[in-house]
Amino acid sequence: MKQHVHLGVVCLARKTYDYLAAEEIYQKIKKDLRSIEAVEWFFIEELVITQEEGVAAANELATKQLDGLICISGTFHLGHLVLQLKRELAVPILLWGMPELPYDGGKIRLNSVCGVNLNASNLYKSGIDDYSVIIQDQVDEDWIDAIRVIKAMKGAKIGIIGYRADGFFNVGVQDNLLYGQTGALVDHFELSDLYDTEVSAEEVERRKGQILATFDVSTLTEYQVERVSTLSAKMHAFYTGLGLSALAIRCWPEFARDFGVSPCAAMSLLQSEGLILACEGDIDGALSMIAHKALGAKTPFLFDFSQVDFEEDFALFWHCGVAPCNLWDGKCTRSLDTYFAGGKGVTADFVLKSGELSVLRIDSARGAYRVFLQEAKAIPMEKLLKGTYMKVVFDRPVREVLSLVLDNGLAHHSSVVYGNYIKAMEIVAKIKGWRVIQ
Predict the structure, then answer these.
(1) Domain residue spans in the chain?
(2) What would the mean pLDDT of 180-190 be, rounded to a whole number?
(3) pLDDT of 343
(4) At the topology level of CATH, where does 5-139 sit?
(5) The whole model's pTM is what?
(6) What is 152-437's CATH number?
(7) Contact present, 128 and 90 (Cβ < 8 Å)
């Protein structure tokens, strides 16, 4: 399900042009917009023509807690209007121009493109960069999706349990920079806060039933199954009880030692239910998954860029065994195993399904944020390893993609989802002033 947003819409015009045609176009646009999912629309119903109408429209929309504003240039119009709106509404703007209508008596009828040009120039020269521009008949739903991401980040409450993993300096964040760039807030908890979360015996038993129905647990002891079941119940209660948007976990080295199993298997189960769980205390990784979820992508997860084969031109997206269990390829045995942490590292083991992929890393470095984006494709492979993994090809040599990661010092985790969610994130980066690496 996509992130719900509030969007305002105005249509600007001038009576020296064919404002009656613009009115007809606007009525159709309003009807079309109402069909878009997960948006509450706030329309200024009549054309906005005069400065007085611009002020009134701005004041009305300022009461609506908007996440974004669409300004349609129905015809050319006064340059005051968008500036009046922007003065009252500190939200991203989509400047929407109409294709010109057939000429009528040798006179240009809309001159809408020139109106968009006027607005873009006025905003840019005012130092305002969070505007986007389209010239087309239909709204840009990628822009709407970008607003969904911005809202989701702004309202995010990210928990981190026990700090980042030992030595993983590159996934550390500066909390105030994160807040300043996105609005997301971070709350810190100790590992013991999770361990001590109270859950009922009935809920543990229900989780045990899920695990036995989902995984082959033939290599596990009864104690290990009980520990994974208990942790699944505790983690879900902890996450939902605190109203978290995501949870980053210091999943090693202490976790298996102190709780008896690593959290990987429990995370695989809970991520399949829509919880956003980041390995190794990776807060920016959690933020990347929040962004993917806001776009409507299902069950995002973090992977390591673990292997490249330059001759066969593929990469292995692997992690120790934490990918959502609903993304299993349906062919191999989906099992739990204890191959690390002295036999306490209970992880999920399976190959992920094939399909089109979108890769995202929202990453902080040197006092700024940037966005890594790639399209990829998961292709079939045999179950040859422990952990959760997929064989991936790109639309370019894998060597080039790896060079982007290494030359830009990107953290070793990225969020991956099935489907194409690239364009909206490019718009997010433009609105936020973040550099795109792709």
Answers:
(1) 5-139, 152-437
(2) 98
(3) 77
(4) Rossmann fold (3.40.50)
(5) 0.97
(6) 3.20.14
(7) no
